[in-house]
Amino acid sequence: MLDATDLRILRAMQDDPEGSVESIGRAAGLSHTPCWRRIRRMQAEGILGERRYRINEKAIGLGVTVMTMIKLSRQDEVALEAFEKAAHEMRDIVDCYLVTGRYDFVLTILTRDTESFETLLKTKLSKLPHIAEMNSTVVLRKAKSGGPLPI
Known about the structure:
The protein is α+β, with helices and mostly antiparallel strands and 151 residues long. Helix content is 36%, strand content 20%. The protein is built from five helices and four strands; from the N terminus they run αααβαββαβ. The protein has a four-stranded antiparallel sheet. The longest helix has 13 residues, at 32-44.
């Protein structure tokens, strides 16, 4: 269970992802050792995941983001797991969400350009298991992304 001090630590980590344990502790009102212990506990409990750098996708040639909605031909456990496993193995798919409503999955796909997406669609996406319907939308501009969690 998270207490108020844990939440202060998490807020401080979101505000300064590369901050030292000392600076995070100061922001949370703790000294180094108690702060470090709490961070380690939250890592062990799965509250804190792995650290990654956020790379500017356009700067490395991935200028097109596509949101693709997928409806499967059936929604049983075998079909859902088969689709998730296949989507997980595709590096072009950066996010895969199981959702409610008309579609079963929403994918976030990054690619160089629309021609690259067309090739991906024809050669890989259309071959994912159990697809009954697919609807893709090209993102014009990212208005907000990766904001801090509302804690």
